[in-house]
Design a protein that fits this description.
Layout (H helix, E strand, L loop, with lengths): L1 H12 L3 H26 L4 H4 L2 H21 L3 H13 L5 H28 L11 H20 L2 H22 L5 H17 L5 H13 L7 H32 L12 H4 L3
Helix pairs in contact: 1-5, 2-4, 2-6, 2-10, 4-9, 5-6, 5-8, 5-11, 6-10, 7-10, 8-9, 8-11, 10-11
């Protein structure tokens, strides 16, 4: 698994910039689809009746995003934060390759997330406006609660720490999916870590690239683009630490540090390229 992850990270840097950007756009859109369905299924559930169960429903629905990323194939920055630095630790690529890939992928993810937030969430009316009746009104209230908590309800230190916890779990989902050879096995490996980080309220920078802009465009009060940028910065830094320190470095130290760099990758490398 460690060898396959290092090979996969290297292959992600050996493509033209336009293909990386298109692949990253798709991943940003896929994560936003997961976020949108998570809002939809968890809206209208009164906490006094349901307690914390809406967060469980939301987490289960949100797994759609990473399932699409890994099974359909695309580049998600949070996964690349583990795979690409691990390849650099292995000596297959340089630090410049890591910086270039993560910058380009983050840009593509942002464009994809903004596209879904504006055109498919707000302009379609799936996310309503304040005072809207029926399902659009319920989704508006749910989005307002989520975005408000992320943009203004958490301190920057909390956002950073939640970002670490989030991407530790996301990268473990990617890591475990490398061990699965079937589509169903990959989905099962993905489901529990992703459901867990959403249910616990951790911060995923790409998901927040959907939640907060969608709230701004839907007219949620007291949330601005300054709040969005600061949240993305702190969540992104936390995601990077969670991926590099707690997954990439840990498993490099455990399994690759004393192994020759030219060791052949396992046969699972081909399906893992889509992680």
């Amino acid at each position: 698994m460690a060898q396959v992850a290092a090979e996969t990270g290297a292959k992600k840097t050996h493509r033209t910039w336009d293909r990386v950007l298109v692949s990253a756009f798709l991943a940003g859109a896929y994560i936003s689809f997961g976020a949108l369905v998570a809002i939809t299924v968890s809206s209208g559930l009164d906490p006094e009746t349901w307690g914390t169960l809406p967060t469980l429903f939301m987490g289960a629905a949100f797994t759609l995003g990473l399932v699409l990323v890994l099974i359909a194939g695309s580049d998600l920055a949070t996964g690349n934060m583990m795979l690409v630095p691990l390849s650099a630790m292995r000596g297959k690529i340089g630090v410049g390759d890591v910086a270039k890939n993560l910058t380009l992928v983050l840009l593509g993810n942002l464009i994809g997330a903004l596209f879904v937030a504006y055109f498919l969430a707000v302009q379609t009316g799936v996310i309503g406006h304040s005072g809207a009746a029926g399902s659009p009104g319920l989704t508006y209230e749910r989005l307002a609660a989520i975005a408000g908590a992320k943009a203004t309800g958490e301190t920057q230190w909390q956002v950073f720490l939640r970002g670490i916890g989030c991407n530790w779990l996301v990268c473990l989902a990617v890591w475990m999916s490398l061990a699965a050879k079937s589509v169903s096995g990959k989905i099962l490996a993905i489901f529990f870590p992703i459901m867990a980080f959403v249910a616990m309220g951790f911060d995923h920078v790409i998901a927040n690239m959907f939640f907060i802009p969608a709230a701004i465009w839907a007219g949620v009060p007291d949330i601005g683009w300054g709040d969005a940028l600061l949240n993305w910065l702190m969540a992104g830094l936390g995601n990077l630490v969670g991926a590099v320190v707690f997954v990439a470095t840990s498993y490099w130290y455990l399994f690759l540090r004393d192994q020759p760099a030219e060791a052949p990758a396992a046969k699972a490398a081909e399906p893992a390229e889509r992680a």
